[in-house]
Structures are given as structure tokens and as C-alpha cells.
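Quick start: what a row looks like.
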Amino acid sequence: MALDNSKIVFLSYSRKDNKLAEEIDALCSRLSIPIQRDIRDIKYKQSIRQFMKQTADENTKVIAIISPNYLKSVNCMYEAYQCSENWSFQNKMIPIITSDIDIHRVSIKKEYITYWEQRYKTILYYEEQQFGSYKNEIEDTQIALDTLGKFIDYLRDSVQFTYEKIDYFKLLSALEYEFKYPSVLTDECWNWLMSDSGIKCLDIIEFIGDLYRSRNIEISQFPNIPTNERRYFFKNIECYVTELGLTIVLKLVERNDDKEIVMQYSDISDIEESDYRSEIHSKYYFYSINRDKKRIYDRVQKKLKLFNQAEPSDKEQEVLYEGYNDVYRLIVHY
């Protein structure tokens, strides 16, 4: 999976929604999506307004966290305006809607237009009372008023994501990521991938992509002993989530007699790519939970905690050291 290096992904959000922005930022980081964000990427002495104008750039995609705070923010509405000024919202913006806003409510457009109209009247009053120059504020509020109606129309009509349920495959596709494989990961699998920050989700995505461009693959028949590995032609992969992890079903073809075989690896807690990748091969390790080992491991942990035992016995130490994962190796040849 790869993103065009010329592409920039800009995160548009209200500072009042900073916690949500942090979570979206972290999610994108796990998927290796390079995010441009104000608190991190504004250069020394660069104006905020100049930074926000990046949203108008041809190569920029905008992930926008749409909330009541967003629709009442001068800066957010300016960023929305930049998206629509030279390009359409559809070509630029990927909206993520928070749960505290119903974008399809009939009165929502009137509610926010009324808010900006009242703000506009207040600023004009300050100007008339000669409290200072409000030229910039007047221009910004006018931009918000001019943009708001068509922006809400776009949000109602767009393919959008809710913060509570993000379709990760569609999100990556909207960012114009190039997938090397068909859509084999179900929503349940994507949710599992993103549920634990310890899971190397990008390695798993790359692994599936590498399978689909392989010449042949070499895989462990037995765990923890990378010997007697045999080579097969890869045909297909299926993934589904179990109670303890991910189950992968590989459909392979014998190289000698074209016989089709199926190999299943259950309860995978992670897939990790080796650092030794070359033009002709890549190497991956499956960490598969051994349920018998896990029961013994959990029993030892529970005993130590229950009796507040400071020092485990030699046998218990061995159980804790070995853990409960079986490791399989798979080498992809190109």
C-alpha cells in the first residue's frame, strides 16, 4: 500500500475538539498517513492563515472533524471555504461527523446561519462604535455566511464517516492510497486491526499486498521451528476475527502437481515484518496464541497476584518467559 509522495493530508478541526483530533492523528499515524496539523507543522513566523491556505492546494486532501464547534469556528469555515473556492468539496474533503451533531436535521442550516448572522451584526456594531478596525473579522464572517449553506448541503449528500464507526478501507481509498490487493479485510477485521495500538497493522496490510504480487511463498509447517519449509504458489487469502485474534486461511497450490491445499493459522495476535526486505523477497512472522499455553500462563499470573508472591518458582519463571505465542515464518518470493 502506498500514497503518492506529492499528496498532503491536512487535518481540519476546532481546537475545542482537540481530544478527537489527537485520536484521529494517532490513527492516521498507525496507518502511515502523513498528517499536516497546525499545532505541529506551522513554521516559525508563518501565519496561521497562510498555513490554512494549504487546503486549496491541488495535492491536498482534507480530513475534517465536523462538530458543532467546527461549524461555529472562523478558522474551520475558512478552511472549508478554501476547499470549495478552487475545487469541489467532493474532490478535497473527507468528513468525519461527531455524534453530537445531526447534519440531516431540517433546522440545522437555519440554526448556524442565524449564529453567523448574529455574529456579523455584533462585529458591525463594534465597528460603528469605533472600538477599532474589524475589517478582518467582517471578511471572515462574510466568508462563513457565504460558505455555510452549500457546505451543509455537501455534508448531507456526501459519503461520510462517523467518528464512532470509520470504514478504514474506504478512508484509505478516499485518500487515494494504492492497494496492492483486493478488499479481503472485512469491517470486523479492520476494527480488530485498529483496536490495539500494539498491533502492527501496516505490516499486516503490507503482508497481504505482498502475497498478491508473489511468485511463490515459503511457509512454516510447524511453529517455532523454521525448518522443512515448503514453497507454494499463492492463490487466495481469507481473514476473520476470533475470540483471541485473527484467523488467516491461505489457499495455496503445490508447485509440482498443481494440487490445491488450505493452511489455517488461528488466533493470530500480530504479524510482524522482518527488517530484511529485498527486491526478491520479504519475510513475515505470525504470532499465534497457543490456547493451552495461555491457560497455563494466565493461571501462573493469577496465582502470583492472588498470593502476592514476589518471586515465582523456576518453573513459573520459565512459563512467564516463554509466553504463550507460537511463531510461524512466511517468506514471500517475488
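That is the whole record. The chain has two domains: 8-169, 181-333. The first helix runs from residue 18 to 30.
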